[in-house]
Write a structure and sequence with these properties.
- By secondary structure, the chain is α+β, with helices and mostly antiparallel strands.
- Helix content is 40%, strand content 17%.
- It is built from nine helices and nine strands.
- The strands form two sheets. The chain has a five-stranded antiparallel β-sheet.
- Helix 1 crosses helix 3 and helix 6 packs across helix 7.
- The chain is elongated, with a radius of gyration of 23 Å.
- The two termini are 29 Å apart.
């Protein structure tokens, strides 16, 4: 898997600032052995190493454009055919899926289709997943609770989800407007993963599986396998929903209604 595009600059000589780049790539600010005093031809230029390749541009905008072009090249190499098929066949949020996918891939994350949704990983660790809902499309961070959320845009999907946090969108324009913020959040999430940060979970009582759900498990091993393949949060959501009905007949009806959704690997609100 390709890592984030790595940029090396010297803010004393290159005419560039870290804050201008860190939403696009991982930046290292130090002497790069290309001092404009020793190399007069670099005076007034904007320069640095883009993934170990020394790059010189006449304008700052051109240098930043070189980073974007390099990121796009990485993104094209990382696409997964299963996700291609998923987006082609999706009936809603197709443009939004494509835009979010482009942004995430430019960050160098590996792409797979997990739980029926586009999922993105860093060194086999899940970082974000894209999910389309009736009213919005969400970019969900698996360990979003660890993020600082400096822009105040993260949402806790349900009160039972301790780790996951979402950014929700209803159109492509919102995604484009937040592109740099999205990338900075992804970089922060990867940094948290690299550093080994863990989420401190609150201890919760084990949920009792309702009798009607256990009966369904016994009758259909395939259904049981599908249910157990869901994320813990999705399993918990279903159990709470099924158990919430007072009458056995209603619990059975709820289970039957959501059987196919569970077999499709989807959560209660997907």
């Amino acid at each position: 898997m390709a890592e984030f595009k790595k940029i090396e600059i010297c803010t004393k000589c290159s005419g560039l600032e870290v804050d201008e780049i860190n939403s696009k790539a991982e930046v290292k600010d130090s002497c790069i052995g290309k001092c404009s005093k020793e190399f007069p031809e670099l005076n007034g230029k904007f320069f640095g190493f883009i993934n170990d390749e020394f790059t010189v541009c006449d304008t700052k905008e051109a240098f930043l454009g070189e980073i974007d072009e390099s990121n796009s090249s990485i993104a094209n190499r990382l696409t997964n055919s299963k996700v291609d098929e998923f987006i082609i066949n999706t009936k809603k949020w197709r443009d939004e899926f494509n835009e979010l996918r482009r942004i995430v891939l430019e960050c160098g994350l590996a792409e797979e289709l997990k739980w029926g949704q586009p999922c993105y990983m860093f060194e086999r660790s899940n970082i974000v997943i894209l999910s389309g809902f009736k009213e919005y499309i969400a970019l969900a961070f698996f360990k979003g609770v660890l993020l600082k959320d400096s822009s105040g845009i993260l949402i806790q999907p349900t009160e039972n989800m301790q780790e996951t946090r979402q950014i929700r969108f209803t159109n492509v324009s919102q995604i484009v407007e937040l592109k740099s913020v999205i990338k900075s959040y992804i970089i922060e999430a990867v940094d948290a993963e690299k550093s080994g940060l863990k989420v401190n979970h609150e201890k919760r009582p084990e949920l009792e599986i309702p009798e009607e759900l256990q009966k369904k498990f016994d009758e259909s091993p395939a259904f049981k396998t599908a249910f157990e393949s869901l994320t813990p949060g999705r399993q918990r959501g279903y159990i709470l929903f099924f158990s919430g009905a007072k009458q056995s007949k209603t619990r059975e009806a709820r289970i039957e209604k959501y059987t196919q959704q569970i077999l499709d690997g989807k959560g209660l609100e997907d």
